[in-house]
Protein 1
Amino acid sequence: MQYISSRLSDDGVPAFGFGGDYNPEQWDPSVWVEDVALMAEAGVNLVSVGIFSWALLEPSEGEYEFGWLDSILDLLHSSGIRVDLANASASPPPWFSHKYPQSLPVTATGVRLGYGSRQAFCASSPDYRRAAAALTTAIVDRYASHPAVVMWHVHNEYGCHNQPCYCDESGAAFQRWLEHRYENLDALNAAWGTAFWSQHYYSFSEITPPRLSGTFVNPTHALDFARFSSDELLACFEAEAKIIRDRSPHPVTTNFMGFFMGLDKPLDYAAWAEQMDVVSNDHYLVAEDPRNFQDLAMNSDYVRGLAGGAPWILMEHSTSAVNWQPRNIAKVPGEMLRNAMQHVARGADAVLFFQWRAAEAGSEKFHSAMLPHSGTDSRVWREVVELGAALRSISELVGSRVSDAPVAIIHDADSRWASELDSHPSTDLSMMAETRLWHDALYRAQVTTDFRAATDDLSSYRAVIVPMQYLMTDAGADNIRAFAEAGGTVVVTYFSGIVDEDNHVRLGGYPGAFTDLLGVRIEEFYPLRENETTTLSRFGVGRIFSELGRSAGAEVLAEYAEGPTAGSPAVTRRAVGSGFAYYVGTSLSETGVLELLETIAIDADLAIADSPAGDLEIVRRSNGEDTWLFAINHGASAVSVTANGTDLLTGEATAGRLELRGGGVAVIRENRTTE
């Protein structure tokens, strides 16, 4: 990211990336000059070009037309605007799908999808892979040395519309993947538990994707197919990225989608991040979510973890409404600035939008843009210009990192995939909902959090939250135990540690991998009925889940006070080595988690704020010498913030206290303390 930042200004001084997805091919060339002039007015210095232009770049197989792209890249360069150039492999053109119909993806019900939208391809299709490689080669050969190009954008939002694919090509690739993973059928049959329901396999060729069947399919079969599907798309990225890296020195990225909930099976971004030269992400608010700003913060924290704490790129977000939600509600005045500054506060060194100019045709014509349908005489345009100026005013932060994140939340793709399969104790179980519950409590307490895998180095944290990590490997459980023994505080919630990496239940009582660490033994699950709650002796009520069990050495902080689990431990605490291990056997209410967090904070030596409304966001970035405090008020009323320094957005000094208006943002360069 440092490399990109230093290439965004003519004098080489690092700057925040600012701009968006630019689609000049949708407009007459007479519009391009106006576009570039307005970009300069707004302070745009980076645009993504060519993402969905395959059909115009290759009008027929092997015949390329680059004239229009030559012109726009030259125009952008002449105005000092840098380009994140796409290899355009995200959407094969109609001629390709018509010529190679077997390349189209197939659903679990056996229906082959048509073309006419985007991402209409199967990741395992040899025809698609060959065509994408040829296109990538042609583009990078032509533009590797173009002075406008500073970064390469491979594909776009992998897996958003076409994965997993259940076609025969995917089936054959899945068989090869399984043979590589297990080496022999004895190992596969053991891992999949095929003695159940007469599912034993005698040849890898007998195995198909987990297509729709009469009832539940083998859960480990489905889990492995999720793993395979992520790997198959990653193989597409790696092949195209290699072509680029062999021919160009510029960094390569593709845009992630954070915790995107719309995917059938989200990708294993931790594995993907290892292949990125710089991590980038797309995030869109759910307009009807009253705390969507906290969801934004959680996604940014996750992406920062994928980047290893390094600065990352916000590749897409919206200036106002999107087009794909049930009710596409416009952002209120000032919300765009708050959203952008949230991403920057949590580690982004570039703020880009989809898209530059609002489209006049197509499915996304009502998606907001930097330049809206109403043109420059509009609130959105004025706020875009304001944001560009704000980013320039805080440019000294570029390259700094988020500091003081004392808590890690564990998140593993395997656990999410496994937890979202069927045949579980309750359809209300949601790893992501429980994760958000705990992140929101920490957000309200103004505690910055990182996201980490269970096997990551956790030694720098004071507390680690393990929210419904249903699948837990031995290595992950051992690492979390070692963290507690070394003085850390661990909080494990219900339905964690239940199965191993093969999706087999850990026998001997729940919570399986964490039973000894936590000092509890759960005999039986008692899921609650829809919207039912159960009274606890402390911390209010439990939701979704309750359990019958007993303490096996843990201090009981709260019991179930009613029903079949009355007297069983609901919340426990156990001293482990130099640290502590908490267990929460139900989903607490918002107030219950905050109350418990007060106790956890004492053990973990966490400083927590008294901000019950949870509307004030406080985050710091540091470069090792200077520290900058971001204060973002998502509420309607003014709040008082402890701050000593200078607000870079206004130039005003703060002497101990800052009164931050409702909806306001401040970025304070904090005064250095002297010994």
Protein 2
Amino acid sequence: MTDGPSFFNLYRHNFARIAVAVPRTHVADPSSNAKETIALMREADSRHAALTLFPELGLSAYACDDLFQQRALLDACLTALNDVVIASRDIETVAIVGLPLDIDGLLFNCAAVVHRGRILGLVPKTYLPNYREFYESRQFARGDRLLRDSIALFGQSDVPCGGALLFRLEQQPLLTFHIEICEDLWVPVPPSSFAALAGATVLLNLSASNVTVGKADFRRELVGGQSARCLAAYAYSAAGYGESTTDLAWDGHGVVYENGNLLAQTQRFLDAPQCLVADIDLDRLISERMRQTTFGDTAHTHRDACARFRTISVPAVLPRTIRLPLERTYERFPYVPSNPALRDERCREIYDIQVQGLVTRMRAAKVSRLVIGVSGGLDSTQALLVCLRAVAALKLPCTAVIACIMPGFGTSERTLDQARRLVAALGCEAREIDIRPSCLRMFEDIGHPYANGEPVHDVTFENVQAGERTNHLFRMANQYGALVVGTGDLSELALGWCTYGVGDHMSHYGVNASVPKTLIQYLIRRSAQWGTLNDQASATLLDVLDTEISPELIPAGETGAIQRTEDTVGPYELQDFNLYYLLRFGYRPSKVAFLAWSAWHDATLGSWPDLPEEERHAYDIGTIKRWLGVFLQRFFGGQQFKRSCLPNGPKVGSGGSLSPRGDYRAPSDSTASAWLAELEGVPNEDGGV
């Protein structure tokens, strides 16, 4: 171990671990509640959480009702808070605990921020519910009734207090948190909305929140929705077992959301203390705020409200030097939902988007026929399925799709057979053209050595074949008054793995342009499994999935070895992962490598939707670094000119599109040097720093 930050440490990569604590409550017994609180603080600290959130009025219990008017209870709560403060001297986590606190003759429902033997701030509850089962106005004053902005407490003369407080960690400025209490979230404009506009990335809610039927679902919607609107993380802790059940019940529901996504939640109705942790991606939140420019516009509109916030510095020391992997799961296939039901729904929706785009283009162009090159590989198979759905939507026969099979010098018997079987099974109009004679004529015309029998398999040899195929498709489209449908996918566009101007780069409309390779594999698999195709078509689709990915432009060698795409550009399953996090969030290469390592270093971790055991892979950090370097060079260093003149095609998902008219605009003359230099900090071995 070195004194510097470890690469395999979540805090190095702008993650922050926060804990949601749900202690067992002892009604009107602050001493016992303090012990419960301290025990959970120590547990959260042992798990290296930067923050630990406790429930509303956790030092007293929420359901004390008129006991809050008893001085003995209030004094005991102060003593309990002091016990927590003293215990915090050797605990690094920042604790946010709830208690009743009287200030200037008024009683407030407060949250205290405790760290290393000090109280960093006090935040009173702003909105007090006084309806149905709630009678808080009977005991408490609203937070805006507070007449001062600091108080003296436990020997501290200047403890900040008020609702407009932000707390920023000195060692991680991206972690700025704001506190609101229970009902504050349930009002039309929660205080956390303004706090987020003022810079808070993590929103914390101390709650009691009794349980009724269906309330847990509503809580999730409320917390998730606020985190999404505020482009923030939102942690929520509610009271659990031990609260008074005189008239109410409690489920101890704690949740953590990040920009609308549920990261973790407690087990409800558990008769035991709980300490839930979640790793927040601060980079993601900042990235989303930068991209969603209306967030900044809203902050400007409410600049007077934002200006009222004070920022408190938090001197917490983060554990950066130890090996501290994520407890959060990152899916290996970010474009493919791991949940089977959601994946099935997503596949249907993607087909609908692709088909709707193609149908609209056919109507606009006033054509009733489509021309497509079919190779027996993944991309052309997916595009062919879309074409058939499109003509069906227009009530045209399958023969409106002219499927052209064009074997060349590297075409294998396997893919040629698959192309023929697929076209026959789907009922398209089939055309087969051997492009080798026209390629030989081109070789003769340009003086390429292959015309004289020399086995020169250079880029010219490959691109002449790609060009001849495209030339035939466009001329056939002219002949039949049809559109040429492109087959190239998002992964190939990202890697520049397409032949400029001809080949899979050019078409009248590219239905796969924003669909990555890993997603195409699952779309085809679902088409084979849905039962909407005949048995021969479904069987052929499964054969296509089992075929090695290859452009088949170079003949197989003497050993029968074929041209493998992934030997050159890297494993698509890994490159699609890299593409998602670089394109969608603009992360540093080192962070992408850390996420890839978190997802891929152990083949037993996470979900592998529909993949058989023998197809499940693991990648060490050295392999991840190597292929990420290939991705960076190909994506940022010289292939943009191909993406700058893409044919039209529908955007499918929020994971990104490379259309110069849509999601992605970039110069064609940039280099990858900055990204490759940053990648150098990634170790070459899993045991590295």
Protein 3
Amino acid sequence: MEPLKHECGVAMIRLLKPLEYYQEKYGTWMFGLNKLYLMMEKQHNRGQEGAGMSCVKLDGQPGSEYMFRERAEGKDAITEIFGRVQKEYASLSPELLADADFAKEHLPFAGELYMGHLRYSTTGKKGLSYVHPFLRRNNWQAKNICICGNFNMTNIDEIFQKMLTRGMFPRIYSDGYTLLELMGHRLDREAERNFVEAKAQGLDGMELTHYIDEHMNMANVLKTSMPDFDGGYVMCGLTGSGEMFSMRDPWGIRPAFYYANDEFVAVASERPVLQTTFDLECEDIQELQPGNALLVNRRGEMRIEEILKQRGDSACSFERIYFSRGSDRDIYKERKRLGELLVPQILKAVDDDIEHTVFSFIPNTAEVAYYGMLSGFKKYINELKVKKIQQLDHTPTDEELHAILDTYVRSEKVAIKDIKLRTFITEGNSRKDLASHVYDITYGCIEPYVDNLVVIDDSIVRGTTLKESILRILDRLHPKKIVIVSSAPQIRYPDYYGIDMPRLEEFCVFRATMELIKERGMQDLMKRVYDSCKLELLKPKEMMRNCVRDVYKPFSIDEINKKIVEMLRPEELETPVELVYQSIDGLHEAIPDHKGDWYFTGKYPTPGGTKLCNQAFVNYMEKQM
């Protein structure tokens, strides 16, 4: 019920025909620009802190700009950056604006290569300088590069030191700029390789330049830039000479999809974005495989090439539960299945009393899991009806049949998002009071003190909104019992691959476990885990184990759930409250092809994740000392 932040969304389109082609066929040479806008808007869910886009013109004349970039901060950043571009065209007559040749020669962002990015910060760093794409300039076309990505690297400190040993002097310490500098360095080497070849053939002047531009191979750049990075990523980029690339991490943590025909090549973070933007079927779209890169050279020739050997099968399950658009065919089915699989646990929580139970959901992102939960209960009720009819020893009357058949699943829209808490309210009690009114309820939708109220969410992370708002407003309906259901398992461990969940103490599950340890006088367990983490941190990261998993071993899920309820329950609340979480087995049954479950199990796909989790526990303990 607390929105998570996630980095980030990417969109790319490479036009394979001259701009005049799109003017004639689609009525505008802005086909690529317009499609980029649609792809970015369709991924607005992935980043509302900033947005940026870039464009490269092919075959420009020396002395004229061929590489463009716009960036902006804030939730309206997409509108702002595209508005700036359109403002450049506002003074043109309709005839001139429809002239593709004029546009190609004179107008900014009238090119063949486009790239867009939506940002959510996972580091807390703000400012336009941290908004993608990042741009590196050079007087040689082939040495210009613009990159963006959906990524978070766990070992940026190691890469930074490696760059220093090579004699490089990075301007900013961040994974984005470090990637830009390192990739730029390798791009220079690739250009120089071609320079040597061109000179050996006796070429000079512009012939030499054209040779370099025509023979740049981004696979060489990626193979020498990316092997040492530990993290989840989809890296995208354009070069001044007209190369385009998108590469997925070798563990398959972050997603990327693409579509290609004879008119364009397009890349996006989510499949339905491409489906909607280009009116495609699921089967038309390909998923970029782990460790592979999609490469389009300046001649428009596309290929998929393995850059790194696949190192794991850890596609992020949280993408499926929460972040990606629920309109994806497979994600929709998976979210419904997550809800359906919770039926046995919910039945236990309401003592099998379906007749006096009302089902609902908060927030809207949980709606699909809610439909799955309802579907599961409809099947359960239908089975009960069949059994009751089969048990009759006589031909039933109409009244008897109606008594059986009229049993149904009771579902209501119980809570409605009403206001947004204004950040200018800083005084603690005032903020808390306002927070309790973020949601409003539908009065009269349950029978007070008789009906149970089951409310499903897609995930429960920090528990703040539950404590400050949700439980308070649900209690106004006076249900017999409140059951809060999470379609995701208990979130126990931080994420280091792009989701804003870096600290253990943020998780209500971890805090509840620490309280249980203290209550039961098991502080020696915390000390043992602390010492074990410190010892592990002395080892090479490839040999580390995640010692934080040990803190949960003495406790059952039910024990932790009860302690979470104690911690989050407002003092004035009288209604009994129970938590129900998805099981790990249920997660994998519902989402069999996305095995990345480190948030729930602590089984990190990369050594860097394990290292940072151990360090997080050390940091937590040392704050307590």
